[in-house]
Amino acid sequence: MTEYVWTFLIAAGIAIILTPAVIKLAKKTGAMDKPDKRKVHKKPIPRIGGLGIYIAVMISVIATVFASMPYVEMRHEIIGLIFSASLIVLLGLVDDYKNLSARTKFLGQIVAATILAVGFDVRIDFITDPFGDYFYLEWWAAVPATIFWLVGLTNTVNLIDGLDGLAAGISAIASITIFLVALQNNFFLVAGLTAALAGAATGFLFFNFHPAKIFMGDTGSMFFGFMLAGISVMGSMKSTATITLVVPILALGVPILDTTFAIIRRLLGGQPIFKPDKGHLHHRLLNMGFTQRQAVFLIYVISAVLGLSAIALTEVSSQIAILILIIVVIAIFYGAKKLGVLRMAN
Length: 346
Fold this sequence. Notes:
mainly alpha, two-stranded antiparallel ribbon, 13 helices
């Protein structure tokens, strides 16, 4: 356990040290997020905070996780994840400066995901259900499924990044959730990687919580999404039926559901699915009278409850797991109806 604490602290410490320098860099180079009618901040804010997060995670992983890996195949997976995630960070950094089109970002994400799935064999080989049954995928199906998973989660975290501290906090909670499950099942590689992600997110929150001094930008939100998606399909995570995909889906339940509802809402409203709107969960909470801090804390609580549900699934029988999932689904649809997230915002 001590090694994971060090992994967390190294990542958190580096993020805290580097972020002020990133703020200065953003101001000097013009990487500023300007207010508009869809955003809630009122003045330009530096938006390349993900650069410091990325460096913090990489240093922590290389210093603690990579150096301790005894097996070549594990190092191969880490190298693949680091390389592909670095491409995502580069793509996000360019977008934070140049505002790339949605199509260009999407194609870049597909390239990074394809490299990880094909070049480094990190992919979804099978899918499981709460009964513990395995559905094995052939290579021709596994690669597209993995690319869809990686690109999908990359964008879900990106889309939830709408309030100070929201994406960083959700990423930290999701990372801690997967870390605890990995620790329960002796998935040491996954535990180390998620400890680093949680540490970097926590360190960044010192500057990102309301009122934010810096945003993580696409550089950070896409990095978190891609890393968590990649970690969840690495070799060690696929050795237990209840772990594969189900735990990360619940751990990242808020951004996944928010993105899903956004797509449905835009399709029903006759809008392009990539067109931004003010119908996201955090927008609805603000319209209900919540302050930024209150809305963020409430979403943290929801994320934590979903995370605890994910952890519970790994410790209970199939029947109880199904009951938990049914309760979660009912609660989700009830909450969605009350908040009106399927209706287009005025």
